[in-house]
Amino acid sequence: xxxxxxxxxxxxxxxxxxxxxxxxxxxxxxxxxxxxxxxxxxxxxxxxxxxxxxxxxxxxxxxxxxxxxxxxxxxxxxxxxxxxxxxxxxxxxxxxxxxxxxxxxxxxxxxxxxxxxxxxxxxxxxxxxxxxxxxxxxxxxxxxxxxxxxxxxxxxxxxxxxxxxxxxxxxxxxxxxxxxxxxxxxxxxxxxxxxxxxxxxxxxxxxxxxxxxxxxxxxxxxxxxxxxxxxxxxxxxxxxxxxxxxxxxxxxxxxxxxxxxxxxxxxxxxxxxxxxxxxxxxxxxxxxxxxxxxxxxxxxxxxxxxxxxxxxxxxxxxxxxxxxxxxxxxxxxxxxxxxxxxxxxxxxxxxxxxxxxxxxxxxxxxxxxxxxxxxxxxxxxxxxxxxxxxxxxxxxxxxxxxxxxxxxxxxxxxxxxxxxxxxxxxxxxxxxxxxxxxxxxxxxxxxxxxxxxxxxxxxxxxxxxxxxxxxxxxxxxxxxxxxxxxxxxxxxxxxxxxxxxxxxxxxxxxxxxxxxxxxxxxxxxxxxxxxxxxxxxxxxxxxxxxxxxxxxxxxxxxxxxxxxxxxxxxxxxxxxxxxxxxxxxxxxxxxxxxxxxxxxxxxxxxxxxxxxxxxxxxxxxxxxxxxxxxxxxxxxxxxxxxxxxxxxxxxxxxxxxxxxxxxxxxxxxxxxxxxxxxxxxxxxxxxxxxxxxxxxxxxxxxxxxxxxxxxxxxxxxxxxxxxxxxxxxxxxxxxx
Length: 736
Hints:
The chain has a ten-stranded parallel beta sheet with strand order 9-10-11-12-13-14-15-16-17-18. Strands 2-3-4-1-5 form a five-stranded parallel beta sheet, with helices on both faces. The chain has a three-stranded antiparallel beta sheet with strand order 6-8-7. It has four domains: 125 residues, no CATH class; 175 residues, 3-Layer(aba) Sandwich (Rossmann fold); 67 residues; 224 residues, Ribonuclease Inhibitor (Leucine-rich repeat, LRR (right-handed beta-alpha superhelix), Alpha-Beta Horseshoe), CATH 3.80.10. Helices cover 44% and strands 11% of the residues. Strand 11, helix 24 and strand 12 form a beta-alpha-beta unit. The chain is of the alpha/beta class. Pfam families: LRR_14 (PF23598), NB-ARC (PF00931), Rx_N (PF18052), WHD_DRP (PF23559). One of its GO terms (molecular function) is ADP binding. Belongs to the disease resistance NB-LRR family. Keywords: Coiled coil, Leucine-rich repeat, Nucleotide-binding, Plant defense, Repeat. InterPro entries: Apaf_helical, Disease_R_plants, LRR_dom_sf, LRR_R13L4/SHOC2-like, NB-ARC, P-loop_NTPase, RX-like_CC, Rx_N.
């Protein structure tokens, strides 16, 4: 709903000349939806299993309703703005159209009728929830703290931490000289939920604690009561002295910190602060941790790299990245849980067990949970068919029941700690198939096109904002960085199969993404499809199910199947499509004809044709006046002259050799331009670049012979510094 509210404000602008009664209805919708949005964000803070049933139903209704409203508003804005195109051909056609004024009146009548219908729906949903009064969201089930198993589980069940334990102990004890060894040292263990951070630190604590005068092991958790944490620390340091302190609720933080510092004075201590989630909680606890230069040691554990960095602020401190189990240790742990008597794995289960362990990726929580599920009740190992079924379900959001909820609870802690915009960005990753390396730039561009950052008015560039979100998801160990460049930036990311399974499940529950593949090709669609990810195909899926499926509400369509050419005729049925991503797809023999319906996608913001071998874009592309991102990397597509009239285009990515028609100056919103071929028009190109005042990233390609390249470069160097906007960091690429 975050992208809808700003659009309602736009609709109220004087330029749209709404009738007074329609204006009042829009203002009513704006007020009601703001209240709904606040209530929806409150609901989103609570895990589904902890919500009352009517809260879940209400939240689903509000999400669906807000998307329906946004489609209506967008349709109105698109139809109005289509009559204001800067394209001379379009403007001339509009001026010659005697029916234009009549059509605009019809549009106004249609929006009035649509908004009245929506107002009635909003009123109905509002009454159902008692005018948005927050209900008491009491957990409907009793859950067990997942950290208890790590703290108090049987040591004989622990596998694969000996090397990590020795490594951590070595880092805690090392020092260049006696003086450095006496300095306070903090080691922060960071990693993905379920990797075994608590298990590791408990093993280290148990081994080293006797070497210190005093020690404590406390858990902070997601929503900490810092005063309780301080009381727990005091009690663990000396439970006899502080046995009555746990009830001293009237002591404030300062008094507790003072008391704790007194207890640590002139003592060599070892303290573990487990499960830190925020920097603020750490900063308060840190005040209590006295540094008396007596060789004290502190370990913190967290899922958030930013928290680890805050903990390790001195040169003596260490960030320890928790690693997954090795293949051998993963297998030992898996077999120990399923075959506790020490019997060997049956031959018919060996291969499927290897495939399952590959999906677990060395995460102990995933291995233990899945092994427990397969072991069954009373150690009756489940038949191979169920092993195969489980293997196929991991990473698709359908791994539920049979003890799998424990893993879901642990992963949900990280998810529900996110800001609501970050939750949306994370769920969006469910569009991509398992084991996909997802390009950072591609992902951020798609987030922008989806409108996830709409309403953020702090002046931040949208791509920079998207990159900060991308980095936050990495720092919180929710996605893994791939391809770190010289600047230390991740070029791509991947999603662990266990996390992908979790977010696919949530995305399905919230009707956020619909995945189509051969596994669910017979499952009926019960709700409107908003975002469609087409991953694996059969002719049956295309010719039967999709032929009968409504595409009216589909906002995003991504194809990962090689049968993309069979899907493209469906383009004529999309009415509100914002994102069309065909990257890497084969468009068939008649690929230059396959995109003939693309001009009808008036809502389109993102068109990804990278690596498709698309031959030609139709001249009708000029109709896509809301298009923001056009990616033609690794293609040899021919561009029509009308492409320079896409006034909202902010990112244009070309392959070397693609000739961009003259008229570049008309793309006044352009921020990124890559693969611009200078050719024989170098001087003219430079002049045009001078009009692109928003340009912030420019990639230039030279063509022709060596002499021609040198001439082009000289022209650019002579004129470019005067013409290219000063803010543009230009990157010059020479191509053969």
